[in-house]
Amino acid sequence: MLNDLVIRTALDARLNRRFEHDADTIIRHELGVESGGSRVDVAVLNGHLTGWEIKSDVDTLVRLPNQATSFSRVMDYMTIVTTGKYLDRAAILLPAWWGLMEAVPSPHGVRLVSRRSPHINRSTDSFCLAQLLWREEAMEELRTRGNARGLSSSSRYFVWERLAQSIPKKQLRSVVLNRLKQRRQWSGGQLPAQSDDSSRK
Question: Quick check: pTM over 0.85?
């Protein structure tokens, strides 16, 4: 039986091998979207926002439809990484642009096999993209553009809304990615030492 940590460790190793010489790429675990309401298990940040959602043998698919909706508002590409137990069901539940990857037991732990490549998501939402920024990051972007007037004491939601309305979505994605990659004090985000409580899955 394959659990989250076994699959996650194999995925992390695969991604680190792929991007080890790419200074423009950052790999994050548990990337919060929509103010932390959902978390992408593993995210790669470079020219796009690319994510992987893990569903192991000990997880369920109960939350998957809602997760897919949340991730679709932010991520350019998504792939589910799951076992034979859930692969066919996940393919039915998920949008066609999601990729499918099967985690197959092997003598060395697990082998990850691509079953369907992901396609670009055309339905991202500017406000949800803006939510990936800390309030002060969003304010700095607005000040740079001379568009921060009246927001000094406003909540972060008004700041995100102004930013989302101020910049075309394609440009906003670049702004968000640059900010995320520039962060020097970003807690967490690394391969966990032990598997998370699967009840959230």
Answer: yes
